[in-house]
Specification:
alpha/beta, Rossmann fold, Helicase, Ruva Protein, domain 3, 5-stranded parallel sheet, 49% helix
């Protein structure tokens, strides 16, 4: 019986990794390079998280989400955040319609947030009031307008972008909203070789050409399988040590946190770290989470959840540098 269960599990793991490989193959037809970004975006989608993507204009953020929509057979919506954008422009609003007999009815007109894949472009350009409209959406996957609540169709995924260069006229995201993002990813500028491929690709067509290889129901099945992936207690304790290691105020805080961290990550970071690690394990054909999964995913999970202090800045350390040092502290306790 155990052998039969293991055989079924192995078959499902192989099928999972093959489906992800098929999606990545289709995305490569539209997106040049950015393999790490693609991997981690797919992890977030299957895990049910959201992604904050930082990158200069023109590196393919919108193209990536549109291509994802095609490969995953999911409706795509793009919201351009601006200072005059209102919450109702995102969520939708109640309008009054007149029937043929003259009776007036209140009807809800859904906003662009009612899609499976939502690109929130330059989210930090909207006012805090409008940004707050995204909190319930990203965490609860539902919209409340007036006295009515409208659930969003699953799977639901928000990819929000920020421009790291131009900061004039922007509103920094509140920490509560930053914490709703499973990952913060940094989209690098392409290499010369990749830029050549991009130019050649766009000379043929500017349209995305990825074919559908998955659908929403299959993604939800993959999410269920990921939730069943076992995690050893040692791995969970290691993930917790990593997250707790970002808090300088704790009694058992490491030297790195005490010296370089102003404030640490929330408990949601530990949840995201373990949940995402399960998906990464399946993507690599494993039905168990490894230390490597935690180490690799610690960077996108933590880089937007911790704040480094002036000492770190003076020592010319980035957030990723400090995360690497925190991981070394956590490894000493293994």
């Amino acid at each position: 019986m155990n052998n039969m269960k293991e055989s079924v599990s192995n078959e499902r793991v192989i099928a999972f990794s093959e489906k992800i490989a098929a999606v990545k193959a289709e995305l490569s037809r539209d997106v040049v390079g950015q393999k790490e970004i693609v991997d981690q975006v797919l992890i977030a989608i299957v895990a049910g998280g959201n992604v904050l993507l930082e990158g200069v204009p023109g590196v393919g953020k919108t193209r990536l989400v549109r291509s994802l929509g095609r490969a995953l057979s999911l409706p795509f919506s793009r919201i351009q955040f601006t200072p005059d954008l209102m919450p109702s422009d995102i969520t939708g609003t109640n309008i009054i319609e007149k029937e043929e007999v003259g009776k007036l009815n209140t009807v809800f007109r859904a906003g662009p947030i009612f899609a499976n894949l939502v690109l929130a472009d330059e989210i930090n350009r909207a006012t805090p009031k409008t940004q707050a409209a995204m909190l319930e959406v990203m965490q609860e996957h539902k919209i409340t307008v007036g006295s009515n609540t409208y659930p969003l169709e699953e799977p639901f995924f928000v990819l929000a972008t920020e421009n790291p260069i131009e900061q004039d006229g922007t509103y920094p995201l509140p920490e509560a909203q930053m914490d709703r993002f499973m990952f913060k990813l940094i989209m690098r500028y392409p290499s010369d070789e990749e830029l050549v491929d991009i130019v050649k690709m766009t000379q043929v067509t500017m349209l995305e050409i990825a074919n559908a290889v998955l659908n929403g129901a299959e993604i939800l099945e993959m999410r269920t399988l990921a939730s069943d992936v076992p995690v050893m207690d040692e791995i969970i304790h290691y993930a917790i040590r990593v997250v707790s290691g970002t808090h300088p105020e704790l009694e058992n805080a490491g030297a790195t946190a005490k010296k370089y961290v102003k404030y640490g990550a929330s408990p949601r970071a530990a949840q995201a770290l373990v949940t995402a690690a399960k998906v990464r394990a399946l993507m690599q054909g494993r039905f168990n989470v490894s230390y490597e999964d935690i180490n690799v995913l610690a960077y996108p999970v933590l880089r937007h959840r911790i704040k480094i202090n002036y000492t770190a800045v003076n020592d010319k350390l980035t957030v990723d540098d400090v995360i690497g040092m925190i991981l070394k502290d956590a490894k000493k306790g293994r």
